[in-house]
Each structure stands twice: as C-alpha cells, then as structure tokens.
C-alpha cells in the first residue's frame, strides 16, 4: 500500500506553518502544526476516521491552538484482528515517519482506543504479543518527537505498569510480553483500563469497554496529560521550538476525511450484547476462543 494511502487530509491549515521539508514518498503535502500533532487510531468496528477517542484530540485542540489531527487508516476489524492490528502498526509508524521527515521540530501525540490503543502501544514498544507479527520498538529518531501516548481499553494492557490509569488490576486478552520495551517511554504513556472491561481487563462486563468517553474526567485527564507532556517538551527544547500560545484563530474543529468528527460519535462498540461485536464472519468471542486455544497449545 503506498504510504500516501495511509494519510487523510486533516491538518488545520489556517493554524499551521509551512513545512521544513517534504517526504519524497508522499503525494499529499504535509502542513506542520504550530501546536501538537495528534495521530489517532480508532477502535474495532468504528467508522473510518477518529472514532470516539477523537474527543480527546478535540479537547487538546481547544487547549493548544494550532494543533492538528490525523487518523490512522487501517481496517480496525474484529475478524482478521491480528492482521488488522498489524496493518495499523505499520500505518501509524509510516505516518510518524512522514510527519517527522516533513516537520523535524514537531511534537506528536499518539492516541488510540481499543484495537487502536494496542496499535499505538505496539508502535512505541514494539509488538511482542503472542500470535501477532513481531515489530521493533520506535526508533530513537522518531521517538524524540513523540511526546505523549494515550490509550483507552487497550487489549495488550498489563497490570502493574507505572503508566496505567483507571481501575483495572488485571491484564488484557493479548498480553504484552515485553513491557521493558515501553519503559523508556514511561513518562509519556498514560493507559486507561477499567475493571470489568472484557478486552483490557479480561473482565465480564460488556458495557465497560465503551464507557471511557462518557467519563469527563478520563477525557479531560487524557487531554491534560497530552498538553502537560507537550508543555514539558517545549520547556526542554532549547532551540526556540513553537510555543503553546499559537496565533491561530481557527475554531478547533477536528475532522477526518470520510470519518467521524470529534463531536459526532460513531456507532457504539462494546456497549451491547455479543452480537454487536461481530464485524464479519468471526466475532471477538471467536478470536478470544482461538487465543485461548493457542495459549493452551503454547503452554
Ligand atoms: C471535550 O470535548 C467535549 C466534546 O467536544 C466537550 O463537551 C468537553 O467540554 C470538552 N472538555 C474539555 C475539558 O475541553
Ligand atoms: C504477518 O506478516 C505477513 C507478511 O507480511 C502477513 O502476510 C500476515 O498477514 C501478517 N500476520 C499478522 C497476524 O499480522
Ligand atoms: C508471551 O508470554 C506467554 C506467557 O508467558 C508465553 O506463553 C508466550 O510464548 C509469549 N509470547 C511471546 C511472543 O514471547
Ligand atoms: C485493585 O488494586 C487496588 C490496590 O491494590 C485495590 O485498592 C483495589 O480494590 C483493586 N481493585 C479491584 C477491582 O480488585
Ligand atoms: C457493567 O458496567 C456498567 C457500567 O459501569 C454498570 O452500569 C453495570 O451495572 C455493570 N453490569 C454488571 C452486570 O455488573
Ligand atoms: C501548558 O502551558 C500553557 C501555556 O503556558 C498553560 O496555560 C497550561 O496551563 C499548561 N497546561 C498543562 C497541562 O501543563
Ligand atoms: C524533559 O526533560 C526531563 C529531564 O531531562 C525529562 O525527565 C523529561 O522526560 C523531559 N520531558 C519531555 C516531554 O521530553
């Protein structure tokens, strides 16, 4: 897939400065944000675009003028979950690569819900979950621009991690084996998972996975966390990096080509009975069963 296919045109053009350079592989121009640039991966079966976790990006855009948002283009399906997630990892990594090539001074936040949360964490920490294709952790060259990573309901969630938020004490259905690979990024990561979430907590309450967005304190804590890391990264920069007090007057609308906006919720995922989890021939329950069998064989 050409790298340009991974991109959607989402930059808040009026709030941005010219690029310092362009990648040769991208046919679409990248406009460098004067604020923070957010790359958002939606959850399984959410409509193409930002998905519900786009509300966090919207709140960040309100707090930091001149920010921009881009949605990861990937299948986000429950069926063929492993390949879908792996496609998301490659796509998000390619987007970071392209953006930092065009905008070397950029400050980037990665945001993901559910499968998209696993995508964001795999991009940063590498993929080490059983049954997924192995990928390396984020290179230093790309990691220096990534100032924050926020996830809700990540199935690769691990208990006891210093970056955890929410009420979960358990580990998700796709446990992350190599958490040490995340540790260098620890201050930049915040991962929400609540007790009972069937994916990130191996829980038994099908409602909880879809409730993170209804908790204003989670959404605002996530946005504040990103802005706090952004502020700190600016304070750390000695070379006159862009400031948080941009000159943008554009309204902080977050949009995505063919997708949901930050204020328009796509169909709810994970709030209904088992049937709503089915995106195709094989539902998540089937995948969990397959994983259970696989673990049984491996163990
Ligand atoms: C976050 O965005 C939502 C939806 O636009 C809005 O209702 C809420 O007030 C915002 N919260 C903050 C803290 O900006
Ligand atoms: C792993 O990578 C191979 C080769 O690119 C691909 O065909 C396969 O679908 C991938 N599998 C998963 C689970 O991502
Ligand atoms: C991950 O850990 C589990 C449990 O210890 C183990 O069965 C599995 O082989 C590990 N997978 C990888 C990819 O290391
Ligand atoms: C999770 O662990 C904390 C700290 O040990 C404890 O206070 C809390 O009750 C636990 N929650 C659940 C649901 O077990
Ligand atoms: C599932 O979680 C929701 C949201 O927290 C709660 O309202 C509901 O009572 C829970 N259901 C069960 C059976 O615990
Ligand atoms: C970030 O910096 C701005 C501008 O200095 C300040 O108004 C805001 O309170 C800071 N926010 C956080 C979360 O640090
Ligand atoms: C800023 O610098 C401090 C001290 O070196 C470091 O601990 C912190 O992680 C840095 N923050 C960011 C966002 O780069």
Automatic annotation (TrEMBL):
Give one GO molecular function term.
carboxylic ester hydrolase activity
Record field: transmembrane: 277-298
Q: Which InterPro entries match?
A: AB_hydrolase_fold, Cutinase/axe
* Highest taxon listed in the record's lineage: Eukaryota
Q: Which residues form the signal peptide?
A: 1-21
Any idea which UniProt keywords this protein has? Disulfide bond, Hydrolase, Membrane, Signal, Transmembrane, Transmembrane helix
List the SMART domains.
Cutinase
Respond yes or no to whether keyword Transmembrane is given for this record.
Answer: yes
* Disordered: annotated segments: 238-265
Protein name per its UniProtKB record: Carbohydrate esterase
Q: Which organism is it from?
A: Coniochaeta pulveracea
